[in-house]
Predict the structure.
Amino acid sequence: MPKPKGTAGATKMKIMAIVCYNWECGVESYGYNIWQALKSNFHIYINDGECRNVYHHLKDLCEMGMLERESLSVEGSNRFIYRPTPKGLSLRERFAPYLEVVRQNNYTN
């Protein structure tokens, strides 16, 4: 049974971890690189057709006030950049285990 709209389940917490990690590292988060990070870090949304699911989660997180979205013009097209809000960062305890996975998978010497 699907979760009610406006709830933050595991996938949304994984997205929050990715966006927060990128934000801490000074890297922009946009739909495609969030999708790539979900695939490489958590092995979800592996198929190309599943990328649209990430955008649904991002829309929900913005509507819930967890992320803010900014439109940037890149090479003649718009790209939406996502950043955590103070409300989103207040959930750090919930997404901390996923943040640790992202940190471990992106650690370089």
About this structure: The chain has five helices and three strands.
